[in-house]
Specification:
This is AMP-binding protein. With 486 residues, the protein is α/β, with parallel strands linked by helices. 28% of the residues lie in helices and 27% in strands.
């Protein structure tokens, strides 16, 4: 019986390739040995102590994730695209007792948390620390929140293990698969690429995305059978030249993190005629939620499918009653994949994690996503009920973009909105009133790039002498969104 995240490493044959990065491969025997040594080096951790990992994908990162679990700690993988301000907020918010990172990244941080180089994990013993996390927590994944600060989604070992079994099941993973991990490990779908691979005793190849042709090259070199990406990456990959040696072994390709443009999907199906397409929808708060049966893709264009095995996903009215076919409502997810809530944030947890049906004992995730279902129960995504922006596979807060604009000292007023974009899902547009008429949009862009990851930096800047307000004095976001779409 699986009880802990590192139990997933049991399934691979000793001499079978487990994980590859660049020119180095660890077999399952070697991976298990390195995880055991690293966990021994973490033996000073109290159960539930948070360990933050801030590093690109590499062998040491994978070892660290599973070693923290084996040592009884809680892993907090930080998006490697985060800038120091965001990294330090995550470390402080989760109460991390240890940060594992690289020498280069450590030099950019000023926080006081104890820091160790990730490649030295297992070489020393940390001081003992008291832990306050409830039992059973495996990971905290930080995602943008509506207030502008990233929020930590708390996942149990059960969430991760159940999710691995469900996703590996419908994707048909076996020990013969080679999975190219192109998504960040701080992203629920990226972490799922590790868990579903190891559950099957398969081989995962790590790549820190550089150029689309690197993905093509690695698919050919490693005879990749499984590839999951977000829409912006798929759009770039669809226009690449794919030689036969890069496509012949591909068994499936999957999309997550937003709607895949119809034209992109069509081109990918032409490029990978022997591969099965999987279109998926997920919530970090529930780890994974739905997928569309590949046999239904042509019959139900635009659908996000039905609940993955082991989950229940419904479309409901505000009062909690289930919507009729064709009627729009909110997506609600319940079952064993529902996470434990938001770290250190009972108010937001209570707002998003509520009983379903109302008054029942079981807690569900009320997603904030609007959808409808057809007569056969297939779900169709419509949009968001809040101001969150979905771009490049990430959900980001307009407030965080606005705060970065104000921090430059170049703007007096700022409002960020998302505008539909065929490649990105939504493109970030910033409406701004400048403090000096001589400032250019390019100067503002460069200043914001200092504090924001690339995917958060606005693609377009619309300057004005004043921004419209609603009757209650707040910025009129609906009007600004309309202006951005002209």
């Amino acid at each position: 019986m699986l009880t802990r995240l590192d139990d997933l490493l049991r399934f691979g044959a000793d001499d079978h390739a487990a994980v590859t990065y660049k020119d180095e491969t660890l077999t399952y025997r070697e991976l298990r040995s390195r995880v055991a040594r690293a966990a021994e080096g973490l033996r000073g951790l109290e159960p539930g102590a948070r360990v933050a990992i801030y590093a690109e994908k590499r062998l040491e990162t994978v070892v660290a994730i599973f070693a923290v679990a084996a040592a009884g700690g809680v892993v907090v993988p930080i998006n490697p695209l985060f800038k120091p301000r965001q990294v330090e907020y995550v470390i402080e918010d989760c109460g991390a007792v240890l940060l594992l990172t690289t020498a280069e990244r450590a030099r950019t941080l000023t926080g006081s948390v104890r820091t160790s180089l990730i490649e030295d994990l297992g070489a020393g013993t940390p001081d003992r620390h008291e832990a306050t996390a409830p039992a059973g927590i495996a990971a905290i994944l930080y995602t943008s929140g509506s207030t502008g600060r990233p929020k930590g989604v708390v996942l149990s070992h059960g969430n991760l293990l159940t999710g691995a079994e469900s996703v590996a099941g419908y994707l048909g993973h076996t020990a013969r698969d080679v999975v190219l991990a192109a998504l960040p490990l701080s992203f629920d779908a990226g972490l799922s690429q590790l868990t579903t691979t190891f559950l099957a005793g398969a081989h995962v190849v790590l790549v820190n995305y550089l150029l689309p042709r690197d993905v093509v090259r690695l698919c050919a070199r490693h005879r990749v059978t499984a590839l999951t990406c977000v829409p912006p990456l798929w759009t770039q990959l669809a226009i690449q030249r794919w030689p036969d040696e890069a496509t012949r072994h591909l068994r499936y390709f999957a999309n997550t993190g937003g709607r895949l443009p119809t034209t992109t999907l069509a081109r990918l199906r032409e490029t990978f005629p022997q591969a099965t397409p999987f279109l998926m929808y997920g919530l970090t708060e529930a780890f994974r939620s739905t997928y569309l049966d590949p046999a239904e893709i042509d019959r139900r264009p635009g659908s996000i499918g039905k609940a993955i095995p082991g989950a229940e996903v419904l479309v409901v009215r505000a009062d909690g009653s289930v919507c009729d076919p064709g009627e729009e409502g909110e997506i609600v997810h319940r079952g064993p994949l529902v996470s434990l809530g938001y770290w250190n944030d009972p108010a937001r947890t209570a707002a998003r994690f509520r009983p379903f049906p109302p008054g029942a004992d079981e807690i569900a995730v009320w997603s904030g996503d609007v959808a409808y279902r057809d007569d056969d129960g297939f779900i169709y995504f419509v949009g968001r009920t809040d101001d969150m922006i979905k771009t490049s596979g990430y959900r980001l807060s307009p407030t965080e973009v606005e705060e970065a604009a104000y921090a430059t000292g170049l703007v007096a007023e700022a409002v960020a909105v998302g505008v539909p974009d065929e490649d990105l899902g939504e493109a970030v547009t910033l409406h701004a009133v400048l403090t000096a008429a001589t400032t250019t949009p390019e100067e503002l862009r460069r200043a914001m790039e200092h504090d924001l990851p690339r995917y958060m930096v606005p693609r377009r800047f619309l300057l004005a002498d004043a921004l419209p307000r609603s009757g209650n004095g707040k910025f009129d976001r609906a009007e600004l969104r309309r202006r951005a779409m002209r």
